[in-house]
Amino acid sequence: MLDKTGIAKRIAKEVKDGYYVNLGIGIPTLVANYIPDDVDVILQSENGLLGMGPFPFEGEEDPDTINAGKQTITKLAGSAVFDSAMSFGMIRAKKVNLTILGAMEVSENGDIANWKIPGKMVKGMGGAMDLVASAENIIVAMQHVNKAGESKLLPNCTLPLTGIKCVKKIVTELAVLDVLPEGGFKLLERAPGVTVEEIKAATAGKLIIEGDIPEMVI
Amino acid sequence: MNKVVSGADEAIRDIEDGMTLMLGGFGMCGLPEKTILALVKKGVKDLTCISNNAGVDDFGIGLLLHQHQVKKMISSYVGENAEFERQLLSGELEVELIPQGTLATRCMAAGYGMPAIFTPAGIGTEVAIGKEVRNFNGKDYLMEMAFDADFAIVKAWKGDRLGNLVYRSTARNFNPVMAMAGKITIAEVEELVEPGELDPDNVHTPGIYVHRIFQGENYEKRIEQRTVRKRDN
Fold this sequence. Notes:
The complex is a heterodimer of chains A (about 220) and B (about 230).
Chain A: H1 4-12, E1 20-23, H2 27-31, E2 42-45, E3 49-52, E4 75-81, H3 84-92, E5 98-101, E6 105-107, E7 112-113, E8 116-117, E9 121-122, H4 128-134, E10 138-141, E11 153-154, E12 169-171, E13 175-179, E14 185-190, H5 196-202, E15 207-208
Parallel strand pairs in A: 1-2, 1-5, 5-10, 6-11, 10-12, 14-15
Antiparallel strand pairs in A: 2-3, 3-4, 6-7, 8-9, 12-13, 13-14
Chain B: H1 8-11, E1 20-23, H2 33-42, E2 47-50, H3 61-66, E3 70-75, H4 82-90, E4 94-97, H5 100-111, E5 116-119, E6 133-136, E7 139-145, E8 149-160, E9 165-166, H6 175-179, E10 182-193, E11 212-215
Parallel strand pairs in B: 1-2, 1-8, 2-3, 3-4, 8-10, 10-11
Antiparallel strand pairs in B: 5-7, 6-7, 8-9
């Protein structure tokens, strides 16, 4: 079973040289720490920055330089700053190659819910609806089951949707799965020490298992 | 031409109860904090506020919420404000949550004189309820209307008395598109400079969009999430 760092490390392997990447809040943000040095990527932060750098050194925080999670960050040589309309313009125009974000639920046809629990929690969708509606390559980083032990990989989402038929890949503490265009979660890899039976038990949606499922290499 | 006013109080002199205001900023970053304080002091109420976030409990728009001056918020993300969430869940506050790109682009449309835009954001979700859907090249898009705001209130780094503005780093965010979108636009700046001091090639908001400008003093520029790395790493 993977911890959050493990999920981030496994997703980092999906990031290819030359990509522009948008990272959501939480586990996706950690992915930046594990992208290999020989993979040259530029991180887009939807509040208006291309070329997001690491956190500043203590004492060098700049209140005017933050990421979409409102964390203090740095700019890199070659960074570019722009306004919010242009930021979502480049997202809508599919200039961003990969979007990595968290989710509360994903359905077997690629629907995603991650912004609202009616009557309990309303944080808002932020930029997630824009990202999932336009991105061609979306990876979801999340726990396989919720705190109540219920599967988050479902036949249909029960929470208000963020977007439809958009998620392509999911990485959880248990497994790596593709969401097939015709529907269904195709099991690609098992987390270290996790059995196919355990993944079956934690997946409520249609799970497709073909042949031996390799253990993931991180 | 001189658009300089004495300060925030004069800038908001004709903002009245029930008006619709756009407020720039992303979280605390690039927030027109001086004008918000003046609105709190003036006590205008029943405001509709268009802003990406709702501030935190004791800063930014959170101060207006705390005094129940806001009738309706139009935002994309409101996660860091307990009082906001309480007023929302109890029904005291009307809230329209919209995708962040839709928010920015509805501002842009107003500033470009376009009545509406089409975006795929929100298709198949509750955001699409009651909205016209058009299909272009096999994909569905929602028609979203340009905003119609009485005032846009923005924060810039530098500005001149003609209203030309320059923003600094990611404090730019929603400010340029909101500056273009108000019937009346108020700009507060950290430094008011003379015409000619801003490089025309690097003006972010041309002065034609700005009606009133003043220099704020002692910006607090609060940091919402202070994240740092150790030097020995």
